[in-house]
Amino acid sequence: MRNDTATASAVLALTGGPANIRHVTHCLTRLRLTVADPAAVDEGSLRALPGVLGVIGAGTPSLQVVLGPGVVDTVTAEVERQLAAGAGAVEAGSGSDVAPTPRKGPLAAALRRIANVFVPLIPALIGCGILAGVNGLLTNAGWLPGLTPALSAIASGFMALIAVFVGYQTAKEFGGTPVLGGAVAAVIVYPGVAKVTAFGVHLSPGQGGVLGALAAALLGTRIEKWCRGRLPGALDVLFTPTVTVLVAGLATLYGLMYAAGAVATAIGTGANWLLTTTGPFAGLVLGGLFLPLVMLGLHQALIPIHTTLIEQQGYTVLLPLLAMAGAGQVGGALAVYVRLRHDTRLRTTIRSALPAGLLGVGEPLIYGVSLPLGRPFVTACVGGAAGGGFVGFFALLGEKVGATAIGPSGWALFPLLTGNQGPAAAIAIYAGGLLTAYAVGFAATLAFGFRRGTTRGTTPPVPDRTPAGST
Hints:
Elements: H1 4-14, E1 21-26, E2 30-35, H2 43-47, E3 54-56, E4 62-66, H3 71-85, E5 91-92, H4 106-118, H5 122-141, H6 148-160, H7 162-173, H8 178-189, E6 197-198, E7 201-202, H9 209-228, H10 233-296, H11 302-313, H12 318-339, H13 344-358, H14 363-373, H15 375-396, E8 402-403, E9 417-418, H16 423-448
Parallel strand pairs: 1-5
Antiparallel strand pairs: 1-2, 2-4, 3-4, 6-7, 8-9
Helix pairs in contact: 1-3, 4-7, 5-6, 7-8, 7-9, 8-9, 8-10, 9-10, 10-11, 10-12, 10-15, 12-13, 12-14, 12-15, 12-16, 13-14, 14-15, 15-16
C-alpha cells in the first residue's frame, strides 16, 4: 500500500531536512524543491526510495523528484504540511510554479507563467474528458438513455465555463485579484454578448475562448495594479474593482473577443490543414521533436493551443501525435535492456521505470537511461517520429485521432481518445502508432544507439538540462 506520508518524510530527510528547503511546488509528475545547500542532498538514496521514479537537477539548487501523476499531489501536500509543522523557511507554490533561476530566458519564463495558468485546470479537463468519452459510447450504443443527459451536463459544465477559470488563474498568476480576473473573463461566456455588435458583426457567447479569457484577465490585472498604486485606501476599495471590471470588460467586448476569436479560428483551421495536407510529415516532426522541445521548455506554448482545440472541436488532434515521443523512449529503453545485459544497475532502472513509461510518465527512462547514454535518446526520438508519422498518415486519409483532455499519454490516454470517425477507430489508430513507435525505437536503438562492439556500459551522471515547467 502506498504511504505518501512516509515518502514525504523520507524525501525531506534525504534533501537535507526542512531547514534546507526554500521553495516547494509541483507540476503534473514532479515534486520541485529549491534547496539552500545542494551538497546536502543524498541523490543515491533519494533515487532508491520506493515510489521515486527519478531525480533531476541533483547538485543544483533546483531539485526535481519524479513521483508520477496523482502521487505528486499528495506527497507535495504532505511535504508542505510537514514543513509548516516544523516552521521551516519555505515558500509554497501551486500548479507548476517554481522559483526562478538565472538560467531562464524571458521566453521560457513567459511560457512557464502561461503554463502555470492552465496546469491547475488539467485534473478537471481529464475528469470531464473521460466522462464525455463514456457518455459518447453510451449514446452511440443507445444504452442508459435516462443517464446520458446527466452525464452530458456534468462533462460539459466545466468546458462551458472554462474561460472563467482561466481568467481566475491568470489574475492569480500575474499578481491580480483572482475573482476580478474571473469576473472579466466571464463576459466572454455570458449569453447576453450576442446583443453586442463589434466591428459591424454580433458577438457570439464564448467567442475568443480561453485565449480571450487569458488576454482579458491580463489586461484586468494591469488595470487593477495601476489603480491600486494611485488611489487612497478608502477609494481603492470602491473604485479599483469597478474600474477594473468596466475598462477591461469594455476592451474585451469591443476588441479582445474579436481578435482572440480570429486567432482561435486560425489555430483550429491550421491544425486541421496541417494534418489533412501534410499528415505523415507533421506526425514525424511533432513526434520526433517533442522531447527536445520539452527540454527547452518550448512545449509549454502548446498548452493553450490544446485547450483551444478541445474547446472548439471537442478534442485536440496534436496530443496523440506528441504522445508518440514517449513511446519511442520505451522502445529505445527496451533495446538498451537487451544490449547492455551486463549492466545490472541500468537494467534495474529500466525494469522499474518501464511501467511508468508505458503509462506516459517518461522522465525516468529519459533522464535515467536514454539521455545520459546519448545516442539512445536520438534513436528513441526516431521511434517517436515513426509513431507520429503513422498516426499522421491516417489523418491524411481523413481518420483524425484526438484527445478530449490534456495531461495523460501512453496507455493512460486510451480512455480520452476520440476522433471524427468515433472512439473505436481512434483507439485502433493510436494503438498502431504506439506499436510503431515501440518497434522503430527498439530497432533504431539496437542498430545505431551504441558504438561498435558495445556490450556493456555504465550510465554517466545526468546533466540538469530540464527547464522548469516540463512534465
